[in-house]
Design brief:
Length: about 650
């Protein structure tokens, strides 16, 4: 997968949120290493496992997943000669108890969660290791019963300490008047009494320490020295016996290194799966159907990090594989791209996604996005330059099964050249078989989508009354920008708005006279690409010819089938499919919709001779592929029951 696009779509932020739900270092590492997959069976398995885990959590189950606290440290020291401590063995015993609990828990869920329950059968309980640790270590210390030798030594230590304590208490009783306080303590493991400095010579013994003020001297009396030596020897024997026990346990644990590694892997897998399930619950996410046929249907898709957003419906892969989305600024076009892209890579990561029932996602081999201006001060790139640099990579990597997400294609440059470049880029990306979702403000791209096989228009809905975006995507229709209406509502002066409309009208008139209207002749619904690579000289010739044609059209009063016209009442362009009737009504097709319009509401735009070659078959435009097949078949022979049905025009 394209790493830059994953970052653009904020995949790493999703992984960070997911990681918060993992409890072990192995589970967190699995989250860090998570990447979208491309093999359908593997993705389906991962999603089904996550769904099973989510169902268990929703039933109120408390899953005993080990935290693996202290285990990473223990495993890192395997085979180094390190002697594990009592705390280390306590961590191992706790881990093995958790493994046993997890194994039993999953065995009880074999019917309701068969996929994830299967992992538990690999868990090794290692009862002999756990029992040995429990016998030797209790409350974080080596127990007296760990060995007979240790038990015997500790009994002798108890006797030696009692004799020592009685002896030192007798000394203190005799010299109570010269003591700073009536209590003994230890310095360096040896017993001492606190003697006032001026009387310290009255006690025969060794000075081992003194107070900060110097007023108290801590002396080990010679009378207890022999008992102290005896105790030290016993303590030395105890330490040696404890080392033997710890060494035995260390050897026992290291012998099961492979089994422990397997247990860690299995529990880490459970931690990872249940982390995905816990995160899915916070999103209200669910599993979706998956396919490798290129069909995608997103019902009520929601971006995981946008709370309260209006769910998005989107469908590609049946009749068309690419969408051109139009609509006003702040209308949510970019959100559509980010939501679709992010949910796609989340689904391909085996995660549940926030969509509604009936959704189905296809598997893409790669998801490449160009969203945002991508400006780089270091590289001195403008918005347009930065986007083109990314588009260059798209053109190189595009192929069948790749999803391309492009926000405001060719924005930030001359509109005329931007339109031409956009169409050429989209044609090439489509030729390579990629799925393309692109947002744009270029009206000409709406015509391109309507006329080109594999493309479909879509628009972000906008409330014309309140001039507020509705954040709903409607497929099959092109949108408008509403820039001037929005500007007026936001307080721009009336004279500025009025002047803007004058300029827009002037631009539209110039566009009719210029090369912009020639785009329709560069592509057809059957995907036949025209000559888009015009030289500067040819471009000027086209502009001059178009200017002349507009002047001549002003004298025309008759509309021919195939002529392009402007419907003044709607402010939209269409193609004449039926000549003027006795009532003055002309048949015009706008965005695949046929309607009858009074000839007085029509203005010439381009004649059929300018748009199409001589003897062009207009059935390609006005009739469906199925109808054309039926008509050709009828021309060759009679077929019983074969009919062509036309919908009534509005």
């Amino acid at each position: 997968m394209n790493l830059q696009s994953l970052n653009t779509l904020e995949y790493e932020i999703i992984k960070t949120e997911l990681g918060r739900h993992a409890v072990s270092y192995v589970g967190k590492k699995a989250v860090e290493e998570l990447m979208p997959m491309t093999y359908l069976p593997t993705i389906q398995r991962a999603m089904e496992e996550t769904s099973e885990a989510k169902e268990l959590l929703e039933r109120g189950s408390s899953v005993p997943i080990p935290s693996l606290e202290g285990i990473e440290w223990i495993m890192s020291l395997m085979g180094t000669g390190y002697l594990y401590s009592e705390q280390d063995f306590t961590a191992v015993a706790t881990f093995l108890k958790s493994c046993s609990q997890l194994r039993k828990y999953m065995a009880s869920k074999e019917q309701s969660a068969p996929r994830i329950a299967a992992y538990a059968s690999s868990l090794m309980e290692l009862n002999h290791v756990r029992e040995a640790i429990d016998r030797c270590i209790r409350f974080g210390a080596i127990d007296d019963g760990a060995s007979k030798g240790l038990e015997r030594i500790r009994k002798r230590i108890v006797v030696a300490k009692e004799r020592l304590h009685k002896k030192i208490e007798g000394i203190m009783s005799r010299h109570q008047s010269i003591l700073q306080e009536n209590i003994y303590s230890q310095r360096g493991g040896r017993y001492v009494i606190p003697v006032k400095r001026e009387y310290h010579k009255q006690i025969k013994g060794s000075v081992l320490d003194q107070s900060t003020s110097g007023q108290t001297v801590f002396i080990e009396p010679d009378e207890i020295a022999a008992l102290q030596i005896e105790l030290d020897l016993l303590l030395g024997e105890e330490a040696r016996e404890e080392a033997v026990i710890l060494s035995m346990l260390t050897s026992l644990v290291e012998q099961e290194q492979n089994a422990l590694n397997l247990n860690i892997e299995v529990t880490g897998t459970y931690d990872f799966i249940f982390a995905k399930a816990k995160y899915a619950r916070t999103l209200g996410a669910s599993a979706v159907a998956l396919n490798a046929k290129g069909y995608l249907k997103m019902n009520g898709g929601r971006h995981p990090m946008l709370k309260g957003m209006i769910p998005i419906n989107l469908e590609v892969g049946k009749g068309y594989k690419s969408l051109i989305i139009t609509g006003p600024n702040t209308g949510g076009k970019t959100v559509v791209l980010k939501t679709l892209g992010l949910l796609t890579i989340m689904a391909q990561s085996g995660m549940l996604i926030p969509v509604e029932e009936g959704s189905e996602f296809t598997i893409f081999t790669d998801v490449i996005s160009v969203i945002g201006d991508g400006q780089s001060l270091a590289q001195s790139l403008s918005t347009f330059s930065a986007q083109m640099k990314s588009i260059e990579g798209m053109l190189r990597d595009a192929s069948k099964g790749v999803l391309l997400l492009i926000d405001e294609l060719a924005a930030g440059t001359d509109p005329g050249e931007g339109i031409a470049l956009s169409i050429a880029i989209l044609e090439e990306l489509s030729r390579k078989g990629a799925n393309i979702i692109v947002t744009t403000h270029f009206n000409e791209l709406k015509a391109f989508a309507a006329a080109t096989t594999g493309f479909q228009n879509a628009r972000m809905e906008f409330d014309k009354e309140s001039l507020q975006p509705l954040y709903r995507l409607t497929i099959g229709e092109a949108g408008e920008s509403y820039a001037l209406q929005i500007a007026k509502k936001l307080g721009i002066q009336d004279n500025v708005i009025k002047r803007s409309w004058e300029i827009v009208e002037a631009q539209q008139q110039r566009l009719q006279k210029g090369s912009g209207e020639a785009w329709g002749s560069l592509f057809s619904k059957d995907g036949e690409q025209g000559n888009a690579a015009l030289t500067v000289e040819e471009h000027e010739n086209v502009e001059e010819e178009a200017t002349q044609s507009v002047r001549s059209k002003e004298k025309l009063v008759q509309f021919e089938v195939g002529d392009a016209v402007v419907v003044t009442s709607l402010g939209r362009t269409g193609i004449v499919y039926e000549k003027r009737d006795p009532l003055g009504m002309v048949g015009v097709m706008i965005q695949k919709q046929k309607m009858k319009i009074n000839h007085k509401r029509l203005k010439p735009y381009l004649s059929k001779d300018e748009l199409y070659p001589e003897e062009y078959d207009f059935d390609i435009i006005f009739e469906s592929k199925d109808t054309r097949k039926k008509r050709k078949l009828m021309q060759r022979k009679h077929v019983e029951g074969l009919r062509i049905t036309h919908r009534d025009e509005e």
